[in-house]
Amino acid sequence: MATIVQALRRPTSYTGWWSWVTTVDHKRIGILYGATAIIFLLLGGLEALIMRIQLARPDQTVVSPEVFNQLFTMHGTTMIFLAIMPLNAALFNFLVPLMIGAGDVAFPRLNAFSYWAFLGGGIILNLSWLLGGAPNAGWFGYANLTGTAFNPGHGIDWWVLGLQVLGIASLASAFNFIVTIINMRAPGMTLMRMPVFAWMTLVTSFIMIFAFPVITVALVELMFDRFLGTNFFVPSAGGDPLLWQHLFWIFGHPEVYILVLPPMGIISEVLPTFSRKPLFGYPVVVFSGIAIGFMGFGVWSHHMFTVGLGPVANSVFAITTMAIAIPTGVKIFNWIATMWGGSLNTKTALLFAVGFIFTFMMGGISGVMHSMASSDYQQQDTYFVVAHIHYVLFGGSLLALFAGAYYWFPKITGRLLHEGLGRLHFWLTIVALNVTFFPMHFLGLDGMPRRIYTYDPSMGWDLWNMVATIGAFMLAVSVLVFVFNLVTSLRRGERAGNDPWDGRTLEWTVPSPPPAHNFDTIPVVRSRDAFWEEKHRRAIAPVAGGSGRMDPGEEGGYRPGHDPRHSTIHMPSPSYLPVVVALGIVLAAYGLVYHLALAAVGGAIAVAGLYGWYMEPASEPEDTGQ
């Protein structure tokens, strides 16, 4: 055993590209998530542009109907699972330990595995273009479109397997951040002193561990139908296609809040900083986020008003859908109140935050319209729904993520993004977003179905489709401006310093970019806006040689003491085993399609990697101070 352990010992660091493959540093993993997600964002945007070119005029033949089906399936899947979710995860990874005063995440290797599994799932999905065709039944995968009788190719198989691997990655990340936030907060940082972004990370993580098992069950049943000949969703054999819809949307609507709650946390950090005042109604903002996470599991059947559930079920889900708008509205009023009377610093991050509020409100209002079963009968499966979801996810999630990028880029890289390019990016995005998606409301009300390949000139839809296509190209230009800003600022951007925005939270107390160990001395927190209070009222203090512990009930003071959680700087050794485990899982997935021998090899590699992972020392002896 000693020989095995000795063989598994790693150098404390690697150099070059191998250092990124073996890294377990949460900040580097966050950068990997962000860079990969931006690539997938560009790919998903390209898929959308091709669809908009096809629909710009009636009777176009730019792509075939089959390719169009693949494009809209991959566009939705990519944007949700491979772009917005990992962009959120990038910020979780880089910022949450810094925000809560922790030196690391709870499970560094599990954190690395979550990224490599995410990358593997993305590869499975996108290599399908080269392996006989991408999935073609929509990102929702409704039965019986996914059955072998109607869809005999491997596209749906890649969709099923890719999403299962992505689910593994999401669950690994969720458990890691729940344990990190609950157990590794700095001394004195009670839950109600925690930054709102960390709160929304915690709520989102809980949503993921309850929602993803549901879609996993549905995907396993679909996999059994396709690979083993079962009949979970085949009505002629006693199955029920509506079972898929229930399972999918029990996951699918909480998934919307998995995408939106972290951006809400970003806005709750950006607005107070650039308004130069505390967040208005902090406890209400926190509890409304918790309420949204809880209530999100009770609204799924508003996606199914037209399937014949009956007036009682429709009425119940109409009421719950209207009710979930209340905590969302509470957040919006608190954000507006935060800016009210503040000394606004109108940097690009604030512009995107304000843009998020108003475009997300527009998406929310059309969402309340969907809550009425009677009007939903007209809007269901029309471009009105396409407009709604894009106002929520592009006008909501992505605008807030852009705000977060401009806000935290200095902390991640040590350099500022260019403000002039940032403002150009903002105005192009706001104009293009509305030019692209607002006309889709008109198209939907005029009866244009979603997911159609072409349309007849006599329908009268050509004008607004052309306008939407022009807007889509404007959006593409705006994203390219952002990418150009990222690349040039990374190399030549103005040096930022540690705290360019007069920040309020603990990540601004450390150098930019932060050191590998985050904090030389773990801070002792005595206020909600810890760092701002230190700068302006001296309400946070480090304890030389370690940390301190708060006296219960002592206001504005601390008692020096030894906290064993933070007695030394502990850095885990790099490891390639998370990559090995993820590679084994991906090979096993391909083996399920091509040959069971390959699946067995992949499973063996994954098991061997897990065994090595279990036996691998957490750190070198010199790292522990022993």
List the helices and strands and how they pair.
Blueprint lengths: L1 H7 L8 H5 L4 H30 L9 H35 L8 H20 L27 H29 L12 H33 L12 H35 L6 H14 L15 H29 L8 H23 L2 H7 L3 H31 L5 H27 L16 H31 L30 E2 L5 H8 L3 E2 L4 E3 L9 E3 L15 H18 L1 H20 L11
Antiparallel strand pairs: 1-2, 3-4
Helix pairs in contact: 3-4, 3-5, 3-15, 4-5, 4-6, 4-8, 4-13, 5-6, 5-17, 6-7, 6-17, 7-8, 7-9, 8-9, 8-10, 8-11, 8-13, 9-10, 10-11, 11-13, 11-14, 13-14, 14-15, 17-18
The total count of strands amounts to: 4
What's the CATH topology name? Cytochrome C Oxidase, Chain A
CA distance, first residue to last residue: 21 Å
Q: What integer value in Å does the Rg equal?
A: 25 Å
The number of distinct structural domains comes to 1
Strand content: under 5%
Shape: globular
- What name goes with the CATH superfamily? Cytochrome c oxidase-like, subunit I domain
Q: Strand order across the biggest sheet?
A: 1-2
Helix/strand/pairing category: mainly alpha
CATH class: Mainly Alpha
Which segments are poorly predicted (pLDDT under 50) over 5 or more consecutive residues?
A: 1-11, 539-567, 621-626
The residue fraction in helices comes out at 55-70%
Overall average residue pLDDT = 89
Give the biggest beta sheet: 2 strands, antiparallel
Q: Which CATH architecture is right?
A: Up-down Bundle
* Elements, N to C (H/E): HHHHHHHHHHHHHHHEHEEEHH
* Individual helix count: 18
Task: List the keywords.
626 residues; two-stranded antiparallel ribbon; 18 helices; globular
